[in-house]
Design a protein that fits this description.
The complex is a heterotetramer, with two copies of chain A (265 residues) and two copies of chain B (309 residues). In chain A, 22% of the residues lie in helices and 34% in strands. With 265 residues, chain A is an alpha/beta fold. In chain B, the strands form four sheets. An eight-stranded parallel barrel of chain B has the order 3-4-7-8-9-10-15-16, surrounded by six helices. Chain B has a four-stranded antiparallel sheet with strand order 5-6-14-11, with no helix packed on it. Classes of the chains: A alpha/beta (265), B alpha/beta (309). Bound molecules: flavin-adenine dinucleotide (2 copies), flavin mononucleotide (FMN) (2 copies) and FE2/S2 (inorganic) cluster (2 copies).
Chain lengths: 265, 309, 309, 265
């Protein structure tokens, strides 16, 4: 069950650029979280912005009772977290949301990450490895500095394909370029998983559709509460059973959705 | 111990003066797994119409300095699904259940209330005549004394339960509206809903909310809400429920001191679901510190300059 | 370069759309040593009555979440001392001078204006019918359409200069008041003054301000002020001057985009006297980024959902 | 002339308890400040509270272009300053207000400090020393830990009389006890200077009045702007030329006032 706790920061690693890895103590998240789930969190050091922010859980350590976030500082909420000192606490509710579901036996998991969207795939890779499922991680950014987790993923032995829009690292072009190359011409048994900017998710959904593959996408709407009550995070979803598209809260019915059900705007 | 926080409100006994405000706590059941719902004095449901509603397009919410601007547009399951699916699940929780009733017409308000009349678990009806995010009903009714009277009287006629109109702050004279409600048979008034506001995306040169305008809530509006609750409490003899920007025990105390019998906590639910425990603990320690027996001893104790109590 | 920020306002040419709001910039001369006053489009004086006034008891100011609640009570030197001591010192500064005129009676508003009529340095009269911190005049006039009309018409009769009533946000329908002002001969309207609020000292159980209630200003009220400025700008053809919570260029742009010809900066003066330079620089860089020739090209460009311009 | 600058924090020394010494670069304050003047300052790291706060200038270093504050963390504004890291900036306007005026030749300056009110006397002591004027500093607090500047003052060679309400350090009792003892019975030529809580200022004013001595008191009202325009900091003052008491802004006509002119509430 998700728990609402004052979570102390227990470790902090600044990465180049606006990025950082933050590790918090939070027994419930450490024990129960699955890849694709997230926390709503806010540094107690900064009164504003006063709402918590959603961040994907990147890793957990159930033994130590901690979990780790991979953050990009983009505004006051994320920056206040990055500026925390070890020992300071954050209000933290989690784990929240629906996780990624492992592929059916025989199918390979292809994880497609754009920017900070790589965070949940670190954990998903660990889960898949534990279940001895084959997977491959496609990690794309605009330029080389936008791939701050590269080293950690290589050290972790993740099967990795890098790409950058400007070609400064890995395959030049969008992350769908190495993905399509990998999928090749013939029908490969795979499930696609995508987390990143909207346009990227949509592109992956199109790749999946064109090839008749299943795809799970993690959407990234603005969230107010994380628990299904503010109805600020709704996304347009039409499930096979729905007569017409419905606004559904991404925090409780997602953030991971079947790509076929998403009504792209 | 916790009997010290109990309050009487329009015939209801609440175990503490904290209710979850409409639209900020879902139908209550969403929080079942997160907290013990019986720590709440009561739960006010999300606004309910006769039929399910889709609500507004997105974006629906934007943060402002110490505030939140929303235009959800009362997305919801409709009163029948609420009675069928939600109310039974609330049976097991020891907390008051207040249903926030909406309508496009006076008749719809009455009809929704009538449907609730047969549901056993409902303790009171809150009449939403103050939602700024719908084209019909809502604020249009709550900004017009005549319509306010009509809606309240219509709902009053079809229920035996306490009827609590929720006032709009987008009026010049909140005391007038409180009095109109009292005259129309209200058992209490909730004070206040959100203030009409707009935030502009200057890069796109359009409102940030898809709906255009929205309702402002949160700590930003608290000084305005406290003033209005104070004016309403002086104007009527039915109880006033204070609402607006309550984040901690001190904030709740401001409303109680100016004369509110209970308060509702709205936006703070999004920030911290642990808010009720924190506030209740803070209220008890306040009572201890000030040597007061019960929370009722705080209500309406404001020493206003130049006035003697 | 800075010609790009110039605006025409009721016959005045302001070199940029930023004025210092009444009561937050003294009489202007207080800032002489701190900044170059000619970086301002204009200065609106502290409110002036016929006679000097003591103002309210202390505390007069209390900070609120992203806001400031004040009850100064228009302490001031009176119009004659202003004309004698202040106006000559403003001669040397190249900025528009607007005088904020107050009164307990309609006659007093007119009398103060008449005294200013012989003073050469005054560019416009702002009529303060919206101060919440006085027992007579102020908001009592600005909340009543008939009195609003009377005051504006009375001032209009005794001056050749532009007359700019300052609207109260403590009304249900700001557009109505803007229209009343226009009909009474206003050259422009300022929109808005402070929202009536109260903060309670829960330990003492009394209001934090000695006066009881006060006026809320600052970023907290900006979404409400932007909405009201937008409503006023749609209602009248005279220019609207937007006021409320402006701290940076983006905030000023919100008001300009919804239709204001100029803006006033209030509480931000207390936080950072360098605010004008920052905002002017931000406006210029916005014009560059958006390929716009002048700030006038921004005014009233809001794309409101469902409306075509 | 006062200047409004982004002042970087150049040094930071945490003292025991809620106290700290902060040194900022600000050429105008460093060059022009006199003891008793103050700055309006706010850490850029914390958006709330959004107003600046007044703090007395404790010391200046015109050569380095810096000034130092002695802060007690009591609320969000002061704590945000104390939490700053070297290199971060604060919005800072100063020097502001009227300084202490040196005593006439032949008279000794008796500086009476309560709590953080000691800050301006560090600087005033330096000024007096430079002018070769005799002075004595009475420094009182509730308990020994409320005298965090003791060591620094002793190292600086300040003629010092300590006192605590609970007797845990120096003379037991209020700071006026050692003051009155020092003044003795016979009429000593002295001017009293006081900075601290209101009740202490009033007590010092009474001592001065009883002995026919001049006294300058630094008042501590809440301040909104620091430059005479918000009229939030007004205090009731009746100068000999005033027919009746007048509300005067403490930021521009004070914070240092002639004790005789203050209408005590
Ligand atoms: C499920 C989920 C998982 C996430 N995981 C991660 C993660 O692992 N690592 C990570 O770095 N980030 C993650 N994010 C994104 C992260 O939540 C945001 O970057 C963060 O909320 C920004 O907050 P801020 O205060 O720093 O910036 P803000 O200033 O609040 O906003 C930054 C951006 O958000 C946009 N924004 C603000 N308000 C709204 C609104 N009402 N509607 C739409 N957009 C708005 C702004 O336009 C701006 O571009 C995740 C988001 C979601 C929904
Ligand atoms: C001229 C001057 C010089 C000063 N010099 C120093 C100094 O050298 N060192 C130092 O540590 N402090 C000094 N102070 C005090 C300092 O300004 C305050 O401690 C600081 O403003 C507190 O701000 P905060 O946000 O930390 O706390 P806040 O939470 O804002 O307030 C702390 C205290 O101030 C009171 N307060 C808040 N608002 C008001 C109000 N509207 N009216 C009256 N009281 C109010 C509160 O009740 C509370 O007790 C000085 C004050 C003045 C006026
Ligand atoms: C997202 C959101 C949705 C709301 N929905 C409703 C609603 O359905 N019915 C209603 O009467 N009030 C609704 N409100 C208003 C709140 O109940 C409350 O009156 C208001 O938010 C002020 O309180 P607060 O500042 O504590 O949030 C809503 C408020 C928010 C923020
Ligand atoms: C301390 C203070 C004093 C004010 N005095 C006056 C006044 O004398 N006359 C007036 O018309 N408005 C007065 N106002 C209102 C401001 O001019 C302005 O309308 C209001 O503060 C909203 O703008 P802001 O949010 O930018 O401060 C005062 C506001 C403050 C904060
Ligand atoms: S974030 Fe509030 S409903 Fe999803
Ligand atoms: S602090 Fe604003 S007038 Fe003194």
């Amino acid at each position: 069950m998700p728990a609402n706790l004052d979570a102390p920061l227990v470790a902090r690693e600044a990465l180049p650029g606006p990025y950082a890895l933050l590790t918090f103590a939070h027994a419930a998240v450490a024990r129960e979280a699955r890849a694709g789930q997230f926390v709503m969190i806010k540094a107690h050091t900064a009164p504003e912005p006063f709402l918590r922010r959603p961040f994907s859980i990147m890793a957990v350590d159930p033994g130590r009772g901690t979990f780790t976030l991979f953050l990009k500082g983009v505004g006051p909420g994320s920056r206040a977290l990055i500026d925390m000192r070890v020992g300071e606490t954050a209000g933290c509710l989690g784990p929240l949301g629906k996780p990624f579901e492992a592929p059916p036996p025989g199918a390979e998991a292809l994880l497609v990450a754009g920017g900070y969207g790589v965070a949940p795939f670190y954990m998903f890779g660990e889960e898949l490895r534990a279940q001895r499922r084959p997977f491959h991680l496609f990690y794309g950014g605009r330029t080389a500095p936008d791939l701050p987790l590269e080293e950690i993923l290589i050290e972790g032995g993740y099967p990795l394909a890098l790409s950058t829009d400007d070609g400064s690292r890995g395959t030049p072009g969008r992350v769908t370029v190495p993905l399509e190359a990998y999928l090749g011409a013939e029908g490969r048994q795979a499930v696609l998983y995508a987390c990143g900017p909207d346009a990227m998710l949509h592109a992956v959904a199109r790749v999946a559709q064109a090839r008749g593959l299943a795809a799970q996408v993690s959407l990234d709407p603005w969230m107010g509460c994380g628990v299904g009550t503010c109805l600020g995070c709704v996304v347009k979803i039409q499930r096979p059973s729905d007569a017409r598209p419905k606004w559904r809260p991404a925090c409780t019915e997602g953030p991971v959705f079947d790509a076929r059900d998403v009504v792209w705007s | 111990m916790s009997g010290r926080l109990a309050v009487e409100l329009a015939g209801l006994r609440l175990k503490n003066p904290l209710l979850a405000a409409s639209g900020t706590f879902g139908y209550g059941v969403e929080y079942e797994r997160l907290m013990d719902l019986s720590t709440l004095g009561g739960i006010v449901s999300k606004g309910l119409y006769l039929e399910p509603r889709d609500g507004c397009d997105v974006p629906r919410i934007v943060e402002t300095p110490s505030g939140l601007l929303n235009a959800i547009g009362l997305q919801g399951v409709g009163v029948r699904a609420y009675v069928r699916d939600v109310l039974p699940r609330l049976e097991r929780h020891d907390t008051a259940v207040v249903v926030n009733v909406c309508g496009d017409t006076v008749e719809e308000y009455a009809e929704v209330t009538r449907i609730l009349e047969d549901a056993p678990r409902v303790d009171a009806i809150e009449i939403n005549i103050s939602c700024p995010n719908v084209k019909k009903g809502g604020m249009a009714f709550g900004g017009d004394p005549k319509m306010t009277h009509e809606v309240v009287a219509a709902v009053r006629r079809v229920t035996r339960r306490p009827v609590v109109p929720k006032l709009s702050p987008n009026v010049a004279d909140i005391a007038l509206f409180a009095r109109v409600c009292e005259e129309a048979g209200a058992s209490a008034v909730s004070c206040v809903n959100t203030l009409l506001g707009m935030v502009v995306d200057v890069e796109q040169r359009r409102p940030r909310l898809a709906f255009g305008t929205g309702g402002l809530s949160g700590p930003a509006i608290r000084p305005i809400a406290v003033r209005m609750a104070w004016q309403a409490a002086r104007a009527v003899s039915v109880p006033v429920i204070g609402i607006g920007g309550i984040m901690c025990a001190e904030d709740a105390l401001e409303f109680l001191i100016v004369g509110c019998r209970a308060v509702q906590v709205g936006t703070a639910n999004f920030v911290d679901p642990g808010v009720y425990e924190r506030i209740n603990a803070g209220l008890l320690s306040y009572l201890d510190r000030h040597g007061l027996a019960g929370i009722g001893d705080v209500v309406g104790t404001l020493a206003y300059p130049g006035e003697t109590k």
